[in-house]
Amino acid sequence: MKFGRFFLQLSRRAWVIEGMKVFSLVLLKILVVAVVLWLLLENAPLLVAPIFGAIVTFIGLSMLVLAVLTVGATFGLAVVVALLAVAVSLAAALSPVWLPLLAIVGIVALCRSKPSPAA
After folding, report:
1. Burial code of 16-46, b = ≥16 C-beta within 10 A, e = fewer?
2. Statement: the pTM of the whole predicted model exceeds 0.70
């Protein structure tokens, strides 16, 4: 393009008006930013809806996992308590048998001589 005695060409070989080149690039950057912002604002519902849906789904799945773990832990704890109750009641019911037997085993272990170590 020719403007009077100035020749405007955006390349390295020809003489370029530096101020005009900088102005054009700044103007182009502003235009690109304005177009991108306009597109984002026009399409905001289309962009926000999937993100919102993903967040809601993640929260829902997290609550489901937490509920399953809570129920599982509660059930497991209940089973452990029930088994301990059965073991204690069984030990109490069989105490007339195993307490004297335990006493006899203890007395025999005290009276028994220890074997001599092998040479």
Report:
1. eeeeeeeeeeeeeeeeeeeeeeeeeeeeeee
2. no
